[in-house]
Automatic annotation (TrEMBL):
<dbReference type="Pfam" id="PF01496">
    <property type="entry name" value="V_ATPase_I"/>
</dbReference>
<keyword id="KW-1133">Transmembrane helix</keyword>
<comment type="similarity">
    <text>Belongs to the V-ATPase 116 kDa subunit family.</text>
</comment>
<keyword id="KW-0406">Ion transport</keyword>
<dbReference type="GO" id="GO:0046961">
    <property type="term" value="F:proton-transporting ATPase activity, rotational mechanism"/>
</dbReference>
<dbReference type="InterPro" id="IPR002490">
    <property type="entry name" value="V-ATPase_116kDa_su"/>
</dbReference>
<dbReference type="GO" id="GO:0016471">
    <property type="term" value="C:vacuolar proton-transporting V-type ATPase complex"/>
</dbReference>
<dbReference type="GO" id="GO:0007035">
    <property type="term" value="P:vacuolar acidification"/>
</dbReference>
<feature type="transmembrane region" description="Helical">
    <location>
        <begin position="522"/>
        <end position="542"/>
    </location>
</feature>
<protein>
    <submittedName>
        <fullName>V-type ATP synthase subunit I</fullName>
    </submittedName>
</protein>
<feature type="transmembrane region" description="Helical">
    <location>
        <begin position="497"/>
        <end position="516"/>
    </location>
</feature>
<dbReference type="GO" id="GO:0033179">
    <property type="term" value="C:proton-transporting V-type ATPase, V0 domain"/>
</dbReference>
<keyword id="KW-0812">Transmembrane</keyword>
<dbReference type="GO" id="GO:0051117">
    <property type="term" value="F:ATPase binding"/>
</dbReference>
<feature type="transmembrane region" description="Helical">
    <location>
        <begin position="373"/>
        <end position="399"/>
    </location>
</feature>
<keyword id="KW-0472">Membrane</keyword>
<keyword id="KW-0813">Transport</keyword>
Length: 667
């Protein structure tokens, strides 16, 4: 239960075996590829003897798969958006598969053909869409001019002109009055909308100047009719074209809907394409020549046997050279990645450590030390049997009925484990969905609540501080042990053991005065505290060349006692959140209880479910956040630095499925 030990792997094989080896490594998802050219390997020999055969990086294949990925994603979006029978669409069920089985089912030629056909359908629908917009726009103005009973192009005379156009309806009366002043002008109103009036004007060519003056005055918007048939006929023809367009659109969508049967195949093709892109991206970290390639990477030591066995199955043993080396001190400081390794109980809590910062490779993993404290604190803050049972059932159902993505599975495991301390603290507080547990059942006296959130507030407060005190001492102990392992003995005294002595001495004195009324205990506590305080001051003096600076540093370090007092106060939130959550739940129950019987068993049921769902969400969120804060600020600060680099193995995207090793999946 610590940081997984790593070794440096080196593989040398012929160039034509590169793809097989990368596919095998990607299927294991347990090896991080190192950049060969930025490693500390002496590559002068290769540069000297193989310089002419070194192959430059080729991005063409990666770009090809990136282009295919874009096409697949666009095709999937297009099918889901425009394909018919969307109501009958079944969501893709997440699966567990191996990379090799996924790759065997991937038919690149068939997928390319699907994409070509879907692109053709998309182009057809896009054309229909643009044509429809054009026809609808045309229909709009044809509908207004359809009552024009002449064709402007065929009705021009030597002495007259035909003018079509619109004016603002507010100017209609003035416009007509001015037109009447011009002799021999025929005016016909074709259409009247809310804001505009559509006119047909016939006038003598000799009157053009007079008419132009009037039309300019009223912003007459001239319209040129483009067809050689009557507007009514053009309007009807336009509607017929729209009908044909709708039928063509239906036909294309029916064709498109047939691809719904291939959705799963396209989803898996997208998954496989992601895998190819990641694999191609890894190739830039290798040394490639015309004859062979060299690969280096980090591998957890417990994955070595699996890798060797997988490579032996994939290709003859004499065609690949593989070696494992221990990391150097320089690599441990600057390069080696960190992967945590814990049992199934602790592993879900690794995400809390990752949110803060991974430990360095040679640093202690705080996850197993933190886990029992976080479980107790979380349970104490939620503290309800009903809420705990809901967490338990929800997590169990999700884990048993669904194949969850790895991140969601870890969350489900996380809340499954936390449901047990929540239920236990629910019994301690005697709370079931905010209701108090009965004190008598079947004539048997029950001990609940062990601690009452109304009568034992001070006891719960003291208990919260005690838990905090224990965690602080634990953090100091871990720090002292780690410093001792590094042979920093004086630091372990001044930064850990002396502080433990000081805190324990103060605790003994307080207990002797307030609880046991024993002067002997008080004296022992004072002596322990004074010796510890002197150690905190003296050690920096010993370590510093300037004794005055050392004394100042020691006194300043001792001033840190105020920080420990603040830390202990922070743990009172365990009491506050536990009591507040239970009080809110009880208030919700009381609110519904005050409703009339009819309302209580109708609207009241829905209301109580909604209110408790809200309280459960807020309780879980508060416990999650404040529990993490206590670890990060009060606990980790005592011994933990962090700053490790996350282990990033060559793997797949796992967008639609979980990829596992062959040894874990029955194909």
């Amino acid at each position: 239960m610590a940081v997984n030990k790593m070794e440096k792997m080196t593989i040398i094989a012929s160039a034509e075996r590169e793809e097989v080896i990368l596919q095998t490594i990607q299927g294991l998802q347990a090896i991080e590829i190192k950049d060969f050219f930025h490693s500390n390997v002496d590559s002068s020999y290769i540069k000297k003897h193989f310089a002419s055969t070194v192959v430059e990086e080729d991005e063409s294949k990666k770009k090809y798969f990136q282009s295919m990925l874009t096409e697949i994603q666009e095709a999937l979006t297009f099918i889901e958006r425009f394909g018919e029978n969307s109501s009958k669409k079944k969501p893709l069920k997440r699966q567990i598969r191996t990379l090799s089985s996924l790759e065997k089912s991937f038919d690149e030629l068939r997928i390319t053909e699907y994409l070509r056909e879907i692109a053709s359908l998309k182009k057809g629908l896009d054309t229909i869409d643009s044509t429809r917009k054009e026809l609808l726009s045309r229909e709009k103005w044809l509908a207004r001019w359809q009552y024009l009973d002449i064709i402007p192009q065929t009705n021009s005379l030597a002495s007259t002109e035909l003018l079509l156009g619109t004016i603002n309806s507010a100017n209609q009366s003035d416009f007509l009055a001015d037109i009447e002043k011009v002799a021999s002008v025929y005016v016909e109103e074709i259409y009247h909308s809310q804001n505009h009036v559509y006119y047909s004007l016939i006038y003598l060519k000799s009157q053009s100047d007079d008419l132009e003056e009037i039309t300019s005055k009223y912003s007459f918007n001239e319209f040129r009719y483009p067809y050689d048939i009557l507007p009514k006929e053009a309007y009807q023809k336009n509607k017929e074209e729209l009908t044909v367009l709708v039928e063509e659109e239906k036909r294309l969508k029916i064709s498109l809907s047939s691809y719904r049967n291939h959705l799963e195949e396209l989803y898996f093709a997208e998954e496989m394409t992601y895998a190819y892109i990641h694999r191609e991206g890894a190739k830039k970290h290798l040394l490639n020549t015309s004859y062979f390639f060299v690969m280096q990477g980090w591998i957890p030591i417990d994955e070595k046997q699996e890798l060797t066995a997988s490579l032996q199955k994939a290709l003859p043993i004499d065609e690949v050279y593989i070696t494992f080396d221990q990391p150097t001190e320089d690599e441990i400081k600057t390069d080696i990645p960190v992967k945590l390794k814990n049992n199934s109980l602790v592993a879900p809590f690794e995400m809390l450590t990752e949110m803060y910062s991974l430990p360095k490779y040679d640093e202690v993993d705080p996850t197993p030390i933190m886990t029992p404290f976080y479980m107790v604190f979380f349970g104490m803050m939620v503290a309800d049997i009903g809420y705990g049972v809901l967490m338990l059932l929800g997590a169990l159902l999700a884990l048993k009925l669904l194949v969850l993505p790895r991140g969601m599975k870890r969350f489900a495991d996380f809340f499954l484990i936390l449901s047990f301390p929540t239920i236990i603290w629910g019994f301690i507080y005697g709370s079931f969905f905010g209701a108090t547990l009965p004190k008598m059942m079947f004539g048997i006296q029950l001990p609940f609540p062990i601690l009452s959130t109304t009568e034992d507030v001070n006891t719960i407060l003291i208990l919260s501080v005690i838990f905090g005190f224990i965690q602080l001492l634990t953090g100091l102990m871990v720090n002292g042990i780690e410093l001792t392992k590094r042979k920093r003995y004086l630091d372990s005294i001044s930064e850990s053991f002396a502080w433990q002595g000081l805190l324990v001495g103060i605790l003994i004195s307080v207990l002797g005065m307030l609880i046991f009324n024993n002067d002997g205990l008080v004296t022992i506590g004072i002596v322990v505290a004074v010796i510890s305080a002197i150690s905190i001051i003296v050690v920096p003096i010993i370590q510093s060349k300037s004794k005055i600076k050392g004394l100042a540093k020691g006194l300043y370090g001792l001033y840190g006692l105020t920080g420990y007092i603040g830390d202990l106060v922070s743990y009172t939130r365990l009491m506050a959140l536990g009591i507040s959550g239970g009080s809110i739940a009880a208030a919700f129950n009381m609110l519904v209880a005050f409703m009339p019987p009819v309302a209580r068993f109708t609207v009241g049921i829905l209301l109580i479910v909604a209110l408790h769902a809200l309280n459960l969400f807020l309780s879980l969120l508060s416990a999650y956040v404040h529990g993490a804060r206590l670890q990060y600020v009060e606990f980790f600060g005592k011994f933990y630095t962090g700053g490790g680099r996350a282990f990033k193995p060559l793997k797949t995207e796992e967008k639609y499925m979980n990829i596992e090793k062959k040894s874990k999946v029955k194909e």
